[in-house]
Design goal:
Blueprint: H1 9-16, E1 23-27, E2 38-41, H2 51-61, E3 64-70, H3 73-76, H4 78-87, E4 92-94, H5 96-103, E5 108-111, E6 121-125
Parallel strand pairs: 1-5, 2-5, 3-4
Antiparallel strand pairs: 1-6, 3-6
């Protein structure tokens, strides 16, 4: 058994399969989950695990070369805005409907228990070399 990093075997395995340019949607409990991508649902109850906890865990495991979130996050969820901008310099903002369209091309969806609006981000994987 791993003693550090992500212990959830489904999530750990899915991350190991990602390659350069693959998309990972990290979403709140209310985001419509697109059909097609592999889904790892971590939601336990409202707020658990939080969007911040899951995002920080993923960022510790992945190389990210770009990120996209819904522009509506700025007005509707200032805490998520601050989190995203502090962790993801160069964050691109698009209308929420466009984010949902882009999410259909993700390779992996990680659903959190977050219950605040627009706590969603699409990460684009980079390479470590």
């Amino acid at each position: 058994m791993k003693k550090a990093g992500i212990l959830n075997r489904q999530l750990s395995g899915a991350l190991a399969e990602l390659g350069h340019g693959d998309g990972v949607l990290v979403c709140d409990a209310g985001m419509p989950v697109p059909s097609g991508p592999r889904v790892v649902d971590l939601a336990f109850r409202a707020g658990v695990p939080s969007f911040a906890e899951v995002l920080d865990g993923l960022l510790a495991e992945l190389v990210v070369e770009g990120a996209t979130a819904a522009a509506e996050v700025r007005a509707a969820n200032p805490a998520a805005t601050a989190l995203l901008e502090s962790r993801l310099p160069g964050l691109a903002l698009v209308p929420h409907e466009r984010l949902k369209e882009l999410s259909a091309g993700a390779r992996l969806v990680v659903r959190t228990g977050e219950a605040r609006p627009y706590a969603n981000v699409l990460l684009r994987c980079g390479v470590f070399f």
